[in-house]
Every structure is written in C-alpha cells, then in structure tokens.
Amino acid sequence: TDIAGSTDRIAAVGDAVWRETLDSFRRLVRQVIDRYGAREVNTRGDDFFVVASSPSIAIAIARDTRSEAASIGLQVRSGIHLGEVEHQGDDYAGLTVHIGARVGGLASAGEILISQTVRDSLAGSLVDSTSRGRHSLKGVPDEWTIFAVDD
Questions:
Q1: Phi, psi (5° rounding) for residue 130?
Q2: 4-23 pLDDT per residue, tens
C-alpha cells in the first residue's frame, strides 16, 4: 500500500506538514495491521509492505487502510499477491515480493488490485472482483491477469 499523489501533496503543503501527515498515516496503518494480527515488514517513504495470514485478511487490511487514510484526507492504492517468499532475517525477498509491488503500482487512487493467484485462492469467499485485464509486470516473466476488488 502507498499514498496516491504523495509527491504532489508534499509540494503543496511542504515538508513539515507532510511529516506530520505521514506520521498520522503510519500510526493509522499500524493500528489496522495490529487489528488483523498481520506483520509490518517494512516501510519506505509512504508505502507499507505487510504480510497477512490469508488473502481475505490482506484485503480487509487494504480496505480498512483505505478508510482510515480517507479520514485524514489521503487516498491510498494497494496491491496484493500470494506466493512463496525467501526469508532474510526480518525481511522477505523473492519474485513474489516483486509481483506484489508491481500489482500495487498498477492501482489507481482508492483501488485495491489483486493478482489472479489471489483471486483463485478466494474461490467461495464473499470477495468479488472485476478483471482489469492482462498486464506485463516490469521484470516479471509472462503476462498477469489483474483484478480490482469490488466494494
């Protein structure tokens, strides 16, 4: 997840105000992460890399993060992927991490995008999604079908 339009926002409000906004955003996101028992892996700038115990929990986190961010005047975009990862100390690495980041990079403000892998794992759940078509993900083999989570 990251804040949509953050560079424009920083330019408009200045560094000091942005720092306060970013602190508030991080505090809200961490409360959401804790609520669902997920794990913050890292944050750089205004993004968050989070690991959740299931795709439906990841979607709930993304939805709640979107709502909480809106309460302080921010819009976020999120990308979710499911797969094997390499553990490197407290961090995660591997192609799965890159795919998740690339999926998130395709999202518009307020949008939660998921990979086909996530969509398939949600069969039988109450989560609906709409196809956003096939996409090439920078540095990732093949094309990937991407879906937007319906509200």
A1: -125, 135
A2: 999 999 999 999 999 999 99
In whole angstroms, what is the distance from residue 133 CA to residue 113 CA?
11
| Contact (CB, 8 A) for 85 and 39 | no
pLDDT digits (tens, 9 = 90+) for 86-142: 988 889 999 999 999 999 999 999 999 999 999 999 998 989 999 999 999 999 999
Q: Is 0.90 topped by the overall pTM?
A: yes
- Which H, E and C letters describe the chain, residue by residue? CEECCHHHHHHHHCHHHHHHHHHHHHHHHHHHHHHCCCEEEEEECCEEEEECCCHHHHHHHHHHHHHHHHCCCCCEEEEECCCCCEEECCEEECHHHHHHHHHHHHCCCCCEEEEHHHHHHCCCCCCCEEEEEEEECCCCCCEEEEEEECC
